[in-house]
């Protein structure tokens, strides 16, 4: 079936792999910047903050341009992205804390929290951050 709906469906299906690749690349950038700064005797907490900021901006640009191919202006999409990111950060902290308090091992708690937060972040990105019909 070569119609538009099939093409549209395929485009939507390819968003999740692109979302995961962009997020992975952003994480790698975070860690690279952090390692380079620590290698220059920058305090680790400052180095990770700078690295995380670089990763956050890179991830936003990749999600906007490549994953969702958004036509939204940055002045609309970026504040939404920051809101979504803050929510994801809080959700990760809450889930991790609950799982650890219930006796889960640290690594297991973080893997579970990361998996759920990744799914929530994808859905928020698709339905809120880069959702263009919300502008009326």
Automatic annotation (TrEMBL):
List the InterPro entries hit by this protein, alphabetically. GtrA_CellWall_Glycosyl (IPR051401), GtrA_DPMS_TM (IPR007267)
A single cellular component GO annotation: plasma membrane
A single Gene Ontology biological process assigned to it is:
polysaccharide biosynthetic process
Where would you find this protein in the cell? Membrane
Protein keywords: Membrane, Transmembrane, Transmembrane helix
This protein's membrane topology, according to the annotation, is: Multi-pass membrane protein
Q: Where is the GtrA/DPMS transmembrane domain?
A: 18-130
The main location is: membrane
Instruction: Locate the transmembrane regions by residue number.
Output: 19-38, 44-61, 108-130
Q: Which family does it belong to?
A: Belongs to the GtrA family.
Q: What is this protein called?
A: Polysaccharide synthesis protein GtrA
Task: Supply the source organism for this entry.
Answer: Marinobacter salinus
